[in-house]
């Protein structure tokens, strides 16, 4: 429904591979001081001197991770970059470069790749990272997009999933659940559109949720926010698969337990009202919905005063001894074991 039906179509086969790469990457300039050589040779050359280099890669497959029926190509390009940068941020590092690899079938014209690349380049500009390489090739069916993100950090700043202590506090940035509900709204509109293509959806009441789904942001700012508060997180992860699954990752890798408080989980008011409309429990959505790309981390109890009134962060629980297990403390003070439930489990709630 969001695709432009009047766009021009230039067949990819009219350009060779090198011409295509040249066309998509012309005038890309490297701005990061750590980039010695970007695009234009057999390999990029980076120099991080005495800093640590953090690398993360992610692959997105059409029909598995995205649906072009409601994901405009420009947004897809932007999101593909952001989800990778989020992993760099989750190491408490600063993203600096990306490489971009794309495989497409011949159903995509050149204009579609230009659109995709405009989103990738926009994200690179917003997040101040250099595009230093990549590849384009053909696929038998659909689109596959793989991005590798590179970042830098002082050795002491790097934060792993291992490192949470049984007395630490559990903290997160932003709010959770909105991206999942944005997807529910878009899926519903897609079904309406399939029945009646002339229907013009009015999505204003869902703007925040849809934006969280189609144009998520990586929390590149958190590293600096914590530094300004003089807080060094003890463990950190980004919330890509849902809050409960990320909490379980930290607990398992740090050998600790956790009490998460239902009434402390930050929810946007729009999420709460749309959950009511869809007859879904907002806590279940917050725990199991994914793709929020907020950061979840633990801090020592001594840092409580520094963070407690900060509007960027919510203290949502505390860690415990591993033997105590991982629990959700509900609003009526019931203690229930936290499970990493799948994406589909939300619908059964
Ligand atoms: Mg991650």
Automatic annotation (TrEMBL):
Pathway: Cofactor biosynthesis; thiamine diphosphate biosynthesis; thiamine diphosphate from thiamine phosphate: step 1/1
Residues annotated as binding ATP: 117, 134-135, 161, 240
The name this protein goes by in its record: Thiamine-monophosphate kinase
Location of the PurM-like N-terminal domain: 40-152
Gene source species: Flavobacterium litorale
Binding site for Mg(2+) 3: 42, 87, 238
Binding-site residues for Mg(2+) 1, renumbered to this chain: 57-58, 135
Record keyword Kinase present: yes
Record family assignment: Belongs to the thiamine-monophosphate kinase family.
Residues bound to Mg(2+) 4: 42, 56, 87
Molecular functions per Gene Ontology: thiamine-phosphate kinase activity
Catalysed reactions listed for this entry: thiamine phosphate + ATP = thiamine diphosphate + ADP
Assigned keywords, A-Z: ATP-binding, Kinase, Magnesium, Metal-binding, Nucleotide-binding, Thiamine biosynthesis, Transferase
Gene (UniProt): thiL
Record's miscellaneous remark: Reaction mechanism of ThiL seems to utilize a direct, inline transfer of the gamma-phosphate of ATP to TMP rather than a phosphorylated enzyme intermediate.
Enzyme class: transferase
Keyword Metal-binding: yes
Ligand binding (substrate): 65, 291, 343
Function: Catalyzes the ATP-dependent phosphorylation of thiamine-monophosphate (TMP) to form thiamine-pyrophosphate (TPP), the active form of vitamin B1.
């Amino acid at each position: 429904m969001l695709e432009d039906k009047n766009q021009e179509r230039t067949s990819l086969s009219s350009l060779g591979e090198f011409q295509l790469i040249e066309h998509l990457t012309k005038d890309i300039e490297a701005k990061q001081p750590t980039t010695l050589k970007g695009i234009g040779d057999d390999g990029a050359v980076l120099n991080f001197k005495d800093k640590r280099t953090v690398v993360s890669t992610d692959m997105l497959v059409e029909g598995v991770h995205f649906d072009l029926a409601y994901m405009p190509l420009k947004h897809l390009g932007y999101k593909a970059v952001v989800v990778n940068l989020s992993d760099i941020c989750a190491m408490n590092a600063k993203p600096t470069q990306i490489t971009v690899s794309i495989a497409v079938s011949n159903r995509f014209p050149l204009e579609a790749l230009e659109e995709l690349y405009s989103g990738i380049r926009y994200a690179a500009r917003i997040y101040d990272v250099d595009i230093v390489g990549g590849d384009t090739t053909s696929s038998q069916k659909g689109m596959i997009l793989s991005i590798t993100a590179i970042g830098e950090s002082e050795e002491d700043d790097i934060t792993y999933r291992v490192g949470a202590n049984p007395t630490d506090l559990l903290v997160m940035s932003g709010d959770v659940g909105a991206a999942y509900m944005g997807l529910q709204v878009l899926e519903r509109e897609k079904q309406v559109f399939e029945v009646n293509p002339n229907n013009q959806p009015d999505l204003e009441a869902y703007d925040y949720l849809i934006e969280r789904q189609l144009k998520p942001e990586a929390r590149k700012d958190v590293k600096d926010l914590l530094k300004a508060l003089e807080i060094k997180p003890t463990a950190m992860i980004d919330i890509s698969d849902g809050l409960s699954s990320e909490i379980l990752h930290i607990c398992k890798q740090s050998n600790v337990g956790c009490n998460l408080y239902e009434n402390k989980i930050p929810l946007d008011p729009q999420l709460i009202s749309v959950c009511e409309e869809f007859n879904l429990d907002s806590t279940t959505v917050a725990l199991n919905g994914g793709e929020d790309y907020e950061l979840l981390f633990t801090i020592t109890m001594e840092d409580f005063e520094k963070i407690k009134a900060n509007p960027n962060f919510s203290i949502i629980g505390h860690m415990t001894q591993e033997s105590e297990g991982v629990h959700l403390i509900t609003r009526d003070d019931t203690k229930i074991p936290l499970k990493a439930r799948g994406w589909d489990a939300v619908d059964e709630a």
